Amino acid sequence: MGRFIVDGGAHLKGEVKINGAKNAALAIIPATLLSKKPCVISNLPNISDVDLSFQILKTMGAKIEKQDEHSVMIDTSTVHKTEVPFELAMKMRASYYYLGALLARFKEANVAMPGGCNFGVRPINLHLKGFESLGANYEIDGGIIRLRTTNLTGAKIYFDVVSVGATINILLAATTADGVTIIENAAKEPHIVDLANFLNSIGANIIGAGTNIIKIKGVKELNSSDYTIIPDQIEAGSYMAMAAVTRGDVLIKDVTPKHLESIVNKMESIGLKIKKYDSSLHILSDGDLEKADVTSQAYPGFPTDMQPQITAVLTFAKGTSIVTEGIWDNRFQYVGELCRMGAAITVDGKVAVVEGGKILKAAPVEACDLRAGAALIVAALGAKGQTEIKNTRYIERGYEDIVGKLTALGASIKKV
Ligand code: UD1
Question: Could you give all domains of the chain from N- to C-terminal order, each with its CATH number?
């Protein structure tokens, strides 16, 4: 089990290049199942979750050829299985996208109940309700979700909770269904738009992605395309948080600033000076950090996947900040580890009160999930002394070459 050893105190300075969006990649890779023609997908991040999704496709019979460091050619014409085995599905939440993709291609899907980060109960009732509306039925048998249909038919589907995963799964299933599907109260995250753009690039007919009503007119056949994934806004936001606590001066390159508005606004209110360019952001942290209240919400609100990192930043800010988790029931599990480093945070349900301005001191800590791990790196970079962070595998699920990127910015970090 890997550990990161981080010496706090270095000022981050220089440039960092942001990779493609994890959550877009994890939707677009299964989406290649919808076409029997090969697709080239570029700007894929080199992270373990992407490798896992390739493994899933390969066990089903797909051919995947690397084109360069961040591009692959995926040919799913040879896929002959409709099952995602338990040992792969349990490692990643996004394995449930194989439900929608397999259902669309083969009229059946058998996917073990997904695993992934544990933020409390993570139901999939909306996904299943959506599949039923399109004419599929399901049973859960021995931990495997089995979906069957004789024919998928377009329908009007209203979600009473905004769900990224359910919106994506219905986009996948409805793309080749007969007739028109309308998703109401759809999620609007940038990676939903990216998936819709990819599907349209291979011949789908989807309009409205990025708004709360998405209309999908089913098409019979899909084609090939050469598609480039959007930049990862959470990776970019994480480097902003790292610059914030290190009095950093960092140019964050290859981003879409529009996708980062809520994070940029919050970072500015905390005291960062941020210059916006077409595809980069210059972050300067040269004064005291100020308290802020943060509530995580669906896009375009402040992302829940940045909640742990901003909480870590606020431990360094003057005054008392309130952080409210608006999406998940149990996403403050990492707070105990920050307190081990001297942070003063109390949690009551979905609200954390952060008494800032403390000097954090190095301690042995343990990541309990991906973004919790990122928050511990933020804390360690700003802390005094040498912090040891256990469970690097969680962090490596979502951050390509984090050691190399931070080292290039002047941090002292190594993996042992
Ligand atoms: C995705 C992201 C995850 C992020 C989350 C919220 C991926 C692979 N993961 O997760 O990183 O934290 O969006 O931005 O893209 N819900 C239901 N029933 C359902 C589905 C969801 O009640 O069937 C609820 C959940 O309990 C949660 C809320 O809806 O409270 C949002 O969940 P959802 O948007 O579905 O998250 P994921 O797609 O799992």
Answer: 3-19+231-415 (3.65.10.10), 22-228 (3.65.10.10)
